[in-house]
Amino acid sequence: MKYLGEFLSYILFAVFAQNLLLGKAVGMSDILTTMKHRRSLPKLLLLVGCWSTAGIMMMWALSRFVKNMEGYLLIALMHSLICAALYFQTDRVLARFKPEAHDRWKEILPHALINSIVVGAPLSALSSGIPNWYSALGCGIGSALGLGLGIVIVKNGVSLLDRPDIPKAFRGIPIMLIYLGILSLGFCAFL
């Protein structure tokens, strides 16, 4: 249960950080804007899962060869570089070999890059504590599933929080922060 709580806390923190730090002036992040098009969510989660899994697996393999790999920021940076390289390679391959697919995926690719970095980098930084390769693989796949769960929870919250009975001073970012804070308390119960 402890690990489930930590995992859910990381995912919620990733959604919160993206909404707060990368959000627009109205407090709506790009990930929630992407959620308006429900068909784009599976594409987004597929890319985030693949890129996060690749980054986490590479960092796990590297932590097996390099002992005392304690530079969490360095590991997170290396994970970010791996995801960025996969982003550019995917964009290039799609543009060259499948131009019609590139047109459909070009709006999803930047969102997937940001989310694979935001969700995968903390998990990758903990890769030295992951005991085996299939646990690292599960962390990568679970990061996409957890992000999907976080998106659905936050998206449902946004639709519920847009009500006229909420005081005007609390609309937008303030009520979203309160909502995410209450959610995080619920997830901390798993710890």
Question: Distance N terminus to C terminus?
Answer: 7 Å
Shape: flat
The total count of helices amounts to 8
Count of DSSP strands = 0
Brief rundown of the structure:
With 191 residues, this protein is mainly alpha-helical.
Protein model, in words:
The chain has 191 residues and is mostly helical. Helix content is 77%, strand content 0%. It has helices at 2-21, 30-34, 40-65, 72-97, 99-105, 108-125, 133-161, 173-188. The model is unreliable at 24-28 (pLDDT under 50).
Search tags:
single chain; 191 residues; mainly alpha; 8 helices; 77% helix
Task: Detail the topology: elements first, then pairings.
Elements: H1 2-21, H2 30-34, H3 40-65, H4 72-97, H5 99-105, H6 108-125, H7 133-161, H8 173-188
